[in-house]
Design a protein that fits this description.
- The chain is α+β, with helices and mostly antiparallel strands.
- The protein has a domain of 213 residues: Major capsid protein gp5 (Major capsid protein gp5 fold), CATH 3.30.2400.10.
- Helix content is 43%, strand content 20%.
- It has twelve helices and 14 strands.
- Strands 1, 2, 3, 6, 7, 12 and 13 form a seven-stranded mixed β-sheet that branches. Strands 8-14-11-9-10 form a five-stranded mixed β-sheet. A two-stranded antiparallel sheet has the order 4-5.
- Strand 12 and strand 13 form a beta hairpin.
- Helix 2 packs across helix 3, helix 3 crosses helix 4 and helix 5 crosses helix 8.
- The longest helix is centred in the N-terminal third of the chain and has 45 residues.
- It is globular, with a radius of gyration of 25 Å.
- The relative contact order is 0.15.
Length: 404
């Protein structure tokens, strides 16, 4: 907690320096100079880096707590002791490491027997290795650091990959009715629908590792593969969750969200337009409302806020490590969102929990000594079966920039 506080205070100090650049220009009744603008951009890069570090430190603290809590829940559900669950998870990590280093045929009889009986793992020379739930969760949690959609959407995890029909319901137009004495109540049926959630396969592409590096006892092959899978699968899935067309991939949130506000300009917006976008979303969804845009849009908003001294447009959260807000609502940086340009949809607002991400059947890791045989490399490939769709198009709306 002390380190989180230190990073938060440092971010606040840099934001004060950024604010003074615009405050000085305003007090002198002049525009910000090119040199000052360049200095502002440099400070903004540092500021964003510190905010990212703060998020990661908080996520790590939450993971450590969740890990202990998860083990206790598994122990309670299975009737096993906590120490027994910890021993099994240690064995699962050992089996995965052995598979990565030497393949299934090179594993010990004990390791092969363990993964064969373990219902959460399936290992063979053809199909690869479906990692256990603990390791799969570790990879998927790390994927949330690459993009933003996973940090705000709802997640549904299923053990199989067949299509499921997920129920939907928009009851925002209905309200209760007052009754006179002895009067009968009227009927207002819930209008349910369904959205088909598939399980499209996302590949990490080949991850080559030299045989010499694998033989180095100091090389942490498990951590390396986990990191690479998290980066590649995280970036690939986030792009689809954001802009995917639904053809053998998720349907992106920008693809199905509705226009909430048409901006007057091509590459700029105003606080008034931001408010129009926010209040175009039904109040029921504004209860959990937040914003989403990329780094370039965030920078533009900071400059607008500081130039006009409009602290509602960008309110820096430096007290107690709270995040910055826009008109009191948090925001998510998603660099797969487009820049402000002709006809683009660069800003989203709404309840992102209405976007459903479906993960199916864990993460599968394939291993091959043949793909890059001549280069003396062992090749790994990860696969994630996933889907994503916005359950209610009224829950999230976007700003559309002018075409001319």
């Amino acid at each position: 907690m002390e380190e989180i506080k230190k990073v938060s205070e440092e971010a606040g100090s840099i934001y004060d320096k950024m604010s003074r650049i615009y405050a000085d220009a305003k007090s002198e009744n002049r525009e910000v100079t090119a040199e000052e603008s360049g200095r502002f951009d440099e400070l903004n890069i540092k500021h964003n880096g510190l905010l990212k570090k703060e998020e990661q430190l908080k996520a790590l603290a939450n993971k450590n707590f969740s890990k202990v809590e998860s083990i206790e829940k598994i122990a309670e559900a299975t009737g096993k002791s906590v120490s027994k669950i910890e021993d099994e998870q240690a064995m699962q990590r050992q089996c995965l490491k052995s598979y990565l280093l030497v393949g299934f045929n090179g594993m010990t009889n004990e390791e092969r027997a363990f993964v064969t009986r373990d219902q959460s793992s399936t290992t063979n020379t053809e199909g690869g290795y479906t990692v256990d739930q603990t390791m799969g969760s570790r990879i998927i949690e790390s994927m949330a650091n690459f993009g933003g959609m996973r940090s705000v959407a709802s997640i549904l995890t299923t053990s199989k990959g067949e299509q499921i029909n997920y129920p939907t319901n928009d009851d925002t137009a209905q309200a209760g009715a007052w009754l006179a004495e002895n009067a009968a109540a009227s009927q207002a049926d819930l209008v349910f629908g369904t959205i088909a959630l598939n399980a499209w396969t996302l590949s990490s592409k080949y991850i080559p590792v030299s045989s010499q590096l694998l033989q180095d006892s100091s090389f942490d092959i498990e951590q390396y593969v986990v990191d690479q899978l998290a980066k590649r699968l995280g970036r690939g899935s986030n792009l689809a969750y954001t802009t995917g067309n639904g053809s053998s991939k998720p349907t992106g949130i920008t693809t199905t969200s509705l226009v909430g506000k048409a901006a007057a300009a091509i590459t700029a917006t105003t606080f008034s337009e931001m408010l129009d976008l926010k209040y175009s979303v039904d109040r029921d969804y504004r209860t959990n409302g937040s914003w989403m845009f990329n780094d370039n849009t965030a920078l533009a908003m900071k400059k607008i806020a500081l130039a006009s001294a409009n602290q509602s447009l960008w309110q820096e959260g430096i007290i107690g490590g709270t995040p910055a807000t826009i008109d009191g609502n948090p925001f998510t940086i998603n660099n797969d969102m487009p820049d402000m340009a002709a006809g683009t949809h660069p800003i989203l607002y709404g309840d992102f929990k209405q976007y459903m991400i479906r993960d199916a059947a864990g993460i599968n890791i394939r291993r091959s000594n043949e793909v890059n045989f001549l280069k003396n490399q062992t090749t790994f490939l990860g696969e994630l079966r996933t889907e994503g769709k916005l359950l209610d198009t009224a829950a999230v709306k976007h700003m559309r920039m002018a075409n001319t």
